[in-house]
Amino acid sequence: MNRFLWPLIGFAVLVALLAVGLNLNPRDVPSPLVGKPAPLFSLARLDAPDQNFSPQDMLGKVWLLNVWSTWCVSCRQEHPVLVDMAKNNTVMLVGLNYKEVRGDGGLDADKLDAAAERKLALERSNAWLKQHGNPYRLSVLDLDGRVGIDYGVYGVPETYVIDKSGIIRMKHTGPISRDDFSGKILPLLAELSK
Amino acid sequence: MRLWLMLFLLALSAVSLQAREAAPLAQDEATEKRLVAISSELRCLVCQNESLSGSHADLANDLRREIRTLIQEGKSDAEIMDFMVSRYGDFVRYRPPLKGTTLLLWFGPGLLLVGGLVTLVLYLRRRNKAINDSPLSAEEQQQAERLLNVKEPQK
């Protein structure tokens, strides 16, 4: 046998491992929440700040919870997909506006009191939705990011698919592309809606 | 010498600067110590190669605040670890638990080492056998000596 055969095989295996490893997305961390009930919360609505929304209001429906923010750059990339999604389908999309004021590095949230922060967050996010189109049935305000922590949010945008009994069925980290939507999310929604 | 002294002083001042920066958080020393101990075991998910205690990411700040609250509520270290793992998964732990999916992670390096050693031993043995170490015949001995004893021409 050729004495170079084994080193060559070893090298090929190494290259194959590296090729696979380098093509994995390190941001794609499996969520332990998939298969578990969606964490409960009660947060003020963006369109009607005196009313609260809770995931329990959605029991019996298949819906998406999309984490977004006006300072989030990748959300802009994702937004047109969401707008189309809302137009073409009967997808129930709920937005979780994540740390609208505190998350923006350009703003000093420490200088604002709670009421001023809330007011600013409402203004900014509503204006943004008016400008870019509003794909959401409703959005809620997570000013301090607490609900985000309960959902294991670590990078905006993130999207959760929640079934009729309130169980999280899928988590998508990062912007949703059209391929993600038609290839992964739509089939799952169809299956869950049966 | 003077340069070294200056560098040393600079290094010292850097350390004390860092200490001052952390001070506002240290309302309660015991809590802070536990916070550091717990958060250095946890990965910051935003900058994945940094621990939660060393990261300046926004989320890391939030999570440290959350852990501080849990400590003040009297939660045990294990309960706090559970809090984090139930939200972010085993990935947040720098020391993943030993279970089916992590067996290869824990024992893979050992297996590789043992495999390498076995291969090495087998290879050396086979090579030893292959080397022909029968002594030279008298004639060959003479020939070798002749070749070795040839004086090199002087330069």
Automatic annotation (TrEMBL), chain A:
Location of the Thioredoxin domain: 32-194
InterPro entries: Periplasmic_diS_OxRdtase_DsbE, Redoxin, Thioredoxin-like_sf, Thioredoxin_CS, Thioredoxin_domain, Thioredoxin_ResA/DsbE_sf
A GO cellular component entry from the record: outer membrane-bounded periplasmic space
Gene3D superfamilies found in the cross-reference section: Glutaredoxin
Location within or outside the cell: Cell envelope
Annotated keywords: Cytochrome c-type biogenesis, Disulfide bond, Redox-active center
Keyword Magnesium included in the entry's annotation: no
Biological process, per Gene Ontology: cytochrome complex assembly
Domain of life: Bacteria
GO molecular function: disulfide oxidoreductase activity
UniProt similarity note: Belongs to the thioredoxin family. DsbE subfamily.
Protein name per its UniProtKB record: DsbE family thiol:disulfide interchange protein
Organism, scientific name: Candidatus Propionivibrio dominans
TrEMBL record, chain B:
Keywords: Cytochrome c-type biogenesis, Heme, Iron, Membrane, Metal-binding, Signal, Transmembrane, Transmembrane helix
InterPro entries associated with the record: C-type_cytochrome_biogenesis (IPR051263), CcmH/CycL/Ccl2/NrfF_N (IPR005616), CcmH/CycL/NrfF/Ccl2_sf (IPR038297)
Transmembrane segments: 103-124
Record-annotated CcmH/CycL/Ccl2/NrfF N-terminal domain positions: 8-148
CDD domains reported in the protein's UniProt record: CcmH_N
GO cellular component: plasma membrane
Annotated signal sequence range: 1-19
Gene Ontology annotations of biological process type: cytochrome complex assembly
Domain of life according to the entry: Bacteria
GO molecular function per UniProt: metal ion binding
UniProt record similarity statement: Belongs to the CcmH/CycL/Ccl2/NrfF family.
Function per UniProt: Possible subunit of a heme lyase.
UniProt-recorded name of the protein: Cytochrome c-type biogenesis protein
Organism the protein comes from: Candidatus Propionivibrio dominans
